[in-house]
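Exercise: predict the structure of this protein bound to D-gluconic acid.
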Amino acid sequence: MKNGKKKHSGDPFDPAPADKFTFGLWTVGNPGRDPFGEPVRARMEPSYIVQQLAECGAYGVNLHDNDLVPFGASAAERERIVGGFKAALEDHGMVVPMATTNLFSHPIFKDGAFSANDPKVRAFALKKSMDAIDLGVELGAETYVFWGGREGTEADACRDPRTAVARTREAMDYLCEYVRDQGYALRFALEAKPNEPRGDIYFATTGHMLHFITTLAHPEMVGVNPEVAHETMAGLSMVHGVAQAMEAGKLFHIDLNAQKIGRYDQDLRFGSEDQKGAFLLVRLLEGTAGDARYPARYEGPRHFDAHAYRSEDEQGVWDFARGCMRTYKILKARAVAFDRDPEVRGLIAERTDRELEPLLARYSKKNAKALRAHPIDADAVAKKGLGYEKLDQLMMEHLLGVRG
Ligand code: GCO
Ligand code: MN
Ligand code: MN
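Solution:
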């Protein structure tokens, strides 16, 4: 069954490849192990996952090197596994838009990878990353994610945190050069997380990453991969982080899921917590507000980095996957209706002032003089209500499905 030939149900919220939904092999493949309990589901073969995801209407699948090729596999084993996987992708019309390296499971990475104190560990991390980059490119990946899961500390005196930053820069510059040297058309996307599995992880948020990128030798090759759960764990607004990345042209990838604030990394089904945040995120990614100053929308894959509850069997996993995609599409439809609503448009229409705006746009001695001379009645401006209660309630009513 080729994905393109699969008959769509006709339900407007059922996903189709054109929606560009992707899942990691490790997401639907998550066996439900947690720090307190053993796996509750059997391992699924990568080719089987590809088939089932295609059946659900996904566009593609992403992977860590070791999700596909076991750690320490021989070259012959690698060839056999990769060959079989490519055939499954081809058979089901699925693509691999993103790949990444597992730099956290093997005990060698107990003190991190690129920031580890032992040069042997850093060397091993670079070698493993170059191999995994080759694998990703062979499978057609255009984006390569770096998530520094174990790049952090509990005993913070073990290294100067500035050294961790510098070592990470060295590694990114090294790998950018490697990609250029190979002539690969690959971009890097850096994924931040504040903690877990380490007590504190370096570059805790998307904002930290955005600045770090400006210090690299090839900043144009590197962007970010923000994750809902990670920004929420840090108590931050995912929407604001993503907006800043988009505005900087740095949203190269995204990890969609859901998370309750103040918890461990829950990786819940997209939209299953904080529906308002999820609505605003979809609205931003889809560009339904239509601000002409910015590119219309995010064009990359809509990737779900989440997994089914531990209560689920395999059927529950596919229910989970469909749920992520359906909720995204439902929120998109709600966002379109919201931004078309004349009452909403009236409330968010920007006030313009033809005399004042040009004076604000750019500093010059002349502009500053004219600005200073321009009378502004602060009390009169302050008195005016802004109607945000009404606006937010309208958003709630669209979100809850009673309007539009
Ligand atoms: C996590 C991370 C990972 C990464 C993945 C890809 O908290 O475990 O979100 O799922 O996204 O390793 O780099
Ligand atoms: Mn995560
Ligand atoms: Mn992630």
